[in-house]
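Case study 2.
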Amino acid sequence: MSFKGWRVLVVGRNLAPLAIAALAEAAIEVVDPDRSETLGGLSSPADLVLIDAESGPVGLLQTFIDSLTAQTNQPAALLVGQTLPAALVRAIFRLGRSDVMESPFAVADLLRAAGSLLMEAEVDGPAKSSSVCWSVTGAVGGAGATTIAVEMAANLAARLSGKGGPGGRVALVDLNLADGAAHAYLGAHAAMHLAEASASPERIDASLLDAFASKVSSGLDLLACPRDPAAFTKVAPRAVTRLLEVACQAYDFVIIDLPRHRQSWSLDVISGSDELVVVSELTVPALIAARSLASELEAELPDGPRPRIVLNRLASRVFGPAPSLAEAERALQRKADGGITSDWEAAAASANLGGSIGQHRPKSKIVRDIDGLVSRLTAARVGVRAA
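Prediction:
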């Protein structure tokens, strides 16, 4: 393929020699990521943008990529780097024509990838992705994060596929790789063999994703690994992020049940999420743990999603000395973003029968509270898009 007449913007000086060697006939402009005025308004519209993921701060590069998605005539974009932050990968895949490539790579590899994207430009128009990703994690063990993740996913699937709904697909991804319980709660098969895919993460695609998925209900799929105590040492971080990249292309909503104990990929997953829900029990140790976790993540990921603390198993104080909501918020040193009423019988019955609480006990207060939480999160997302 000839690149004569194509306009290529290269973000990152270290990437320039490879780009010039691969795309010799193209009109190439090279800029530094810290030149925000250049990134915000290109000197001429680009047909292809090559971005070095390691050339600048993640927040700056993400802002630039977001500016590309807002353009009427979106360019094709290729994100390259030895480390590919999930936030940048999710941002790049919102473009209609985009790809990622891990370093090191040869001139011929860059030539093929760029050629493929520009060939698409001659045939297809842009198709912006609108996938939404929410992560759910517990502040302490046993806080009920898996239950809430399951119910949120089931609620979204019902909204999308129910009478008058717009239609769509929801994925619940259980990243408790060693001993996840989502499949047991739903009475589903754990079919995601992510350790085996770790040898070649780049081969994780839509077809393999379908093989990993277990159908739970109309519009809801589960991606969960069989029990393996050594799974966290067997699964490569790139396999986790690649799985989520592909899932966010295939599904309208991706709900992640995130392990409480931090893994090497945890911050990448959180930074790539649109929302982070931290689930806490209404006990002083759990509330202190939730406050600490939220503060840590806000300090480490200033550009990431704001942690939303949800208080689980709210109940009347008649039968015990549980803190009131006001007392809980004083311990948290912030407002809670939601509360889920305790309904042990409904939760236990649904877990034993296999399926969501909404399926077996649709009138449970848990179902009502989850519906309210999902409504607030989706409303917040709409507000962000409209802003």
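Residues 132-386 form a domain with the Rossmann fold fold (CATH 3.40.50.300).
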